[in-house]
Specification:
With 342 residues, the chain is an alpha/beta fold. The chain is built from 16 helices and 7 strands. Helix 2 runs parallel beside helix 4.
Length: 342
C-alpha cells in the first residue's frame, strides 16, 4: 500500500475503523468503483451519441496536446444526447443506457476488485452516483441492500435508517438501472420500482439541476447524511459542480458536522483537487494514492480492522487507537458498605 505525503494511510485506516465501530462511516461510490466494467463518462456519451445518431465526435476526442477533456463541453454533449433521446420510450431509452454503460473493455464481465472488496464489509448505508448494479451483485445474498432513489418515500426510509436498525441500503442518488449482471427482476422485483428508479437517471445539465433544485426532501436527506455521518469517497468526482453546490449549501446553513469526511484520490488529480479548498470549504480530507489497486488494498485492511482478523504489520500498531466496548457493569462490595470499614 502507498500513502499520501500529507496524511498517513495508517492513520486514516485507524480513524475509519473507529468511526465504523460506531456505525458512522458511509461509503460514497463514484464511477471509478465500476471501472473497467463500466464506461468512463466520455465513452458513455460517445456510445449514447451513436445510438441517438447525434454527431459529437469532435467534443469527445482528446485534443492534440493530450490535455484533459473539457468537462463543460461534455456537459453540453450530454444535454444534447438527453434531448435527442427524449422521444424514445422508457424501455428503449433504458436499453440504450444499459448498452452504453457496458465498457468496450469490460474485463469479461468480472466485477471489479475494488467493488468486490467494498461488498465484503457490512455497510448500513452506501451512497452511489453510479447507475449500475455491480455493487448490489457483489454483496452476499444474506445482506443484499434495499435500493433507494431520490423519491420522497425513499428519502424518509433513508432518514429512519440513521436512527433505527434496518436492512442495509444502497442510495442511488443519480438513478439506477437494474439488469447489468443480474436479471432486472431479481435485483428489483417490482416493475414499477424499476421504472421509477430508471426515470431518475441524470445525465444532462438540466437533469442535474432538476435533481438538486426541485427536490427539497432529497436535499434535506442528503444534508442529514452529510452532517451526521463520515463520508468515505471512492472513485468519485467530488468536484462535480452540482455536488460542490450541495455540499456548500449544507455547510452554509448548518455549519460543519462533528465527523470528518475523507476522499481517496489518485495522485494525478492532486492539482485538480485543491487540498485547502476541500478541507476548509467542503469539510473533506483528501488522501492521495499512486495506483488504483490502492483502493482494494485499503478496503481489505479496513475489513481486517473491523472484523478482528490478524492485521498486516504496517497497520497492526494502529489498532490500539480505537476501543470496542464489550461489556459495561459494576460490582458491589459488601465489606466496604459496613460501618467503620476502611
Amino acid at each position: 500500500m502507498s500513502e499520501s505525503r500529507d496524511f498517513s494511510v495508517q492513520d486514516i485506516l485507524a480513524v475509519a475503523a473507529t468511526l465504523y465501530q460506531r456505525g458512522l462511516v458511509v461509503p460514497f461510490m463514484g464511477s471509478g468503483m465500476s471501472r473497467p466494467w463500466c464506461s468512463s463518462w466520455p465513452e458513455l456519451l460517445s456510445r449514447l451519441s451513436e445510438l441517438a445518431r447525434f454527431e459529437s465526435t469532435s467534443f469527445l476526442e482528446k485534443r492534440d496536446d493530450q490535455s484533459p477533456l473539457d468537462s463543460a463541453a461534455l456537459y453540453r454533449v450530454a444535454e444534447k444526447i438527453v434531448t435527442a433521446m427524449r422521444p424514445l420510450s422508457r424501455d428503449r431509452r433504458n436499453e440504450n443506457y444499459l448498452y452504453a454503460l457496458r465498457s468496450s473493455d469490460g474485463a469479461g464481465g468480472a466485477i471489479p476488485p475494488q467493488t468486490q472488496a467494498l461488498a465484503q464489509i457490512y455497510w448500513p448505508i452506501v451512497v452511489t452516483t453510479n447507475y449500475d448494479d455491480l455493487y448490489w451483485s457483489a454483496v452476499p445474498e444474506v445482506r443484499k441492500p434495499l435500493i433507494l432513489g431520490r423519491g420522497r418515500e425513499d428519502c424518509h426510509i433513508l432518514l429512519r435508517s440513521l436512527d433505527e436498525s434496518r436492512p442495509p441500503v444502497l442510495w442511488a442518488i443519480q438513478g439506477f438501472l437494474a439488469g447489468q449482471l443480474m436479471p432486472a427482476e431479481k435485483v428489483i422485483s417490482s416493475r414499477e420500482r424499476r421504472d421509477s428508479l430508471s426515470d431518475q437517471v441524470v445525465l444532462g445539465h438540466q437533469q442535474y439541476q432538476a435533481a438538486i433544485n426541485e427536490t427539497e426532501h432529497f436535499r434535506r436527506a442528503f444534508g442529514e447524511i452529510f452532517r451526521r455521518r463520515s463520508l468515505l469517497f471512492f472513485g468519485s468526482g467530488i468536484l462535480e459542480e452540482y455536488l460542490v453546490n450541495l455540499f456548500g449549501e449544507i455547510l452554509h446553513h448548518h455549519g460543519p458536522g462533528p465527523h470528518t469526511h475523507f476522499a481517496l484520490l489518485h495522485i494525478k488529480d492532486r492539482e485538480k483537487f485543491d487540498r485547502w479548498f476541500l478541507e476548509t470549504r467542503l469539510g473533506i480530507t483528501p488522501v492521495f494514492y499512486d495506483d488504483h489497486s490502492f483502493i482494494t488494498s485499503f478496503l481489505t485492511e479496513l475489513l481486517k480492522l473491523v472484523s478482528g482478523t490478524p492485521l498486516s504489520t504496517d497497520v497492526a500498531e494502529h489498532r490500539s487507537m480505537f476501543v470496542k466496548t464489550e461489556r459495561l457493569g459494576f460490582q458491589f462490595c459488601w465489606c466496604c458498605s459496613q460501618p467503620g470499614a476502611n
